[in-house]
Specification:
Layout (H helix, E strand, L loop, with lengths): L1 H13 L1 H32 L8 E9 L2 E8 L11 H27 L6 H38 L2 H29 L11
Antiparallel strand pairs: 1-2
Helix pairs in contact: 1-2, 2-3, 2-5, 4-5
Length: about 200
């Protein structure tokens, strides 16, 4: 184990940016696995509520193919029955993402970037970035969510919903992964420690 630590320390000295990216990649994938475990659990629990029959379609921004296009488009009804999952699906996605991002924030700050800057300031910027990225990812999801669910359900029947959940979660995580790394480099700084007075 000491040999591995020594090799890693040497690699980190020679390639600080690459080593930081590799740690970011490992932590991000760990958080993605957590999301993939948590999402079906949240969705299964919320699908048993009346929230699945409550539509959540907000931030309309035009039309696609003559149909209204919403940034957050979760029509009422179960996905397996041709609906959009309703408020239940929206909450499952957002609660899962929020839990994962809180864990991600602390791990990336301490483990990847070893930041000693203001946690409050970093958290403020992180939340702002999370909101902007979530809206952008939701807008993009409108283009790929329905075709993925239809394809998976046609191919696998009711099990296709679970497979489609995983695929859409992976796409969402991939978007976040590539957008967050440069943001983290800005908000998670290592500030110079003041020198002790002699």
């Amino acid at each position: 184990m000491d040999k591995i630590k020594s090799l890693w320390a040497d690699f980190t000295k020679r390639h600080p940016a690459l080593s930081q990216f590799l740690i970011f990649f490992i932590v991000s994938n760990g958080v993605t696995v957590l999301q993939m475990i948590l999402m079906p659990v949240m969705k299964a629990g919320l699908d048993k509520t009346t929230l699945v029959d409550t539509g959540f379609q907000v931030l309309r921004c035009g039309a696609v193919g003559g149909e209204p296009y919403y940034v957050f488009n979760y029509a009422a009804g179960a996905i397996s029955a041709g609906g959009g999952g309703g408020l239940a699906y929206f909450l499952a996605v957002e609660i899962t993402m929020a839990v994962a991002q809180v864990i991600n924030f602390f791990l990336q700050r301490k483990v990847t970037f070893k930041s000693n800057s203001s946690i409050a300031k970093a958290a403020m910027w992180y939340v702002l970035a999370y909101i902007v990225i979530s809206i952008g990812a939701a807008a993009l999801q409108g283009f790929y969510k329905d075709p993925i669910y239809q394809f998976c359900q046609n191919l696998l029947g009711s099990a296709g919903v679970t497979v489609a959940d995983v695929i859409t979660m992976i796409i969402n995580c991939a978007i976040s992964f590539w957008v967050f790394f440069p943001i983290f480099k800005v908000i998670f700084k290592q500030e110079q420690e003041p020198e002790a007075a002699v």
